Amino acid sequence: MPISPDQLPDDLDALKHIIAAMAQDAVTAQAEIAKLRFPLARYRRAEFGRSSERMAREAEQLELAIEALEADQAERIAAASPVVAAAIEAATEAQNRPGAGCRGTCRARM
């Protein structure tokens, strides 16, 4: 749901906090999507055995959850102003860079 400019505060610091919170929400949603993609890939590889039907159902549920999160994030970005949308995109891209979440604990990749 779009926010009209009249609903936003005039205080610059308050606006910065709103933008930072929106960017953090986007990063959190992107992390959740990434977290769901891992078990989804595992379920897709598990093709044989008795539990394959159960895994197929769980894979479908994960796909639906990912689609819902991506749609929600797209709606938030579309509802934001271009400046806010750019800030959110920059935050999610920074989160998705290789090694962004390592904090010095990842091994160097060769």
Instruction: Write down the secondary-structure element order.
Output: HHH
Task: Compute the number of structural domains.
Answer: 1
Mean pLDDT: 76
Total count of helical runs of at least 4 residues: 3
| Structural class estimated from helices and strands | mainly alpha
Number of strands: 0
Structure explained in plain terms:
By secondary structure, the protein is an all-alpha fold. It has one domain (about 10-95). Helices cover about 70% and strands about 0% of the residues. It has 3 helices and no strands. The protein has helices at about 10-45, 50-80, 80-95. The longest helix has about 35 residues, at about 10-45. The radius of gyration is 18 Å and the shape is elongated. The chain starts with 11 loop residues before the first helix and ends in a 14-residue tail after the last helix. The relative contact order is 0.13. Residues about 105-110 have low confidence and may be disordered.
